[in-house]
Specification:
2 domains, mainly alpha, single chain, 7 helices
Length: about 170
């Protein structure tokens, strides 16, 4: 049931129509809680969220960064393809506020500087996802990590890999 990002030109009503049906190309994996998601997967597979520390301790910088990027990329991937003026203003405000309150102060300061150089592109899902990928790659470069191919950002954060490895194994009843 692999989805194609190029076919992602739909109205909001169409997107919401089948978002709860795991067999639909509009299925919203991020809208299903973990216990429901487990019921959709074969019982032989065990799901253990990477962000849950076994001891329940506060996040360290690495865990916070990983969880933050996952949230931001997922938000961008589910941002409207054709946002309203209000949605665009809200997203711009969100990133300003995010940078103001992010708990790692030097990380937040870097993000603010990068936003001054490269302001958020909020006119579409594709633009926002690409802009956020650029921001993430600026951090990756600074940390000596590999850069992500931004042409695959929606495949990674919304549709799943084209090889089908992210597809849900949902049986017809």
């Amino acid at each position: 049931m692999s989805r194609n990002a190029s076919n992602d030109r739909m109205t909001r009503e169409e997107e919401e129509k089948d978002m709860w049906d795991p067999k639909s190309k509009y299925f919203c994996r991020t809208c299903v809680d973990l216990s429901t998601y487990k019921k959709l997967k074969p019982s032989s597979q065990k799901e253990s969220p990477y962000f849950l520390d076994k001891k329940g301790c506060p996040l360290d910088k690495v865990s916070l960064g990983r969880a933050t990027w996952a949230l931001l990329h997922t938000m961008a991937a589910y941002y409207p393809s054709r946002p309203s003026v209000n949605e665009m203003k809200s997203m711009e405000r969100f990133f300003q506020d995010f940078a103001e309150f992010f708990p790692c102060k030097y990380c937040a300061d870097d993000f603010k500087r990068n936003m001054e150089k490269f302001p958020p592109k909020v006119h579409s899902r594709e633009a926002l996802s690409g802009w956020l990928c650029l921001q993430h790659n600026l951090v990756n470069k600074k940390m000596g990590k590999p850069l992500f191919d931004c042409s695959k950002v929606l495949e990674r954060w919304r549709f799943g890999w084209k090889d089908g490895s992210c597809d849900l194994d949902v049986k017809d009843e």
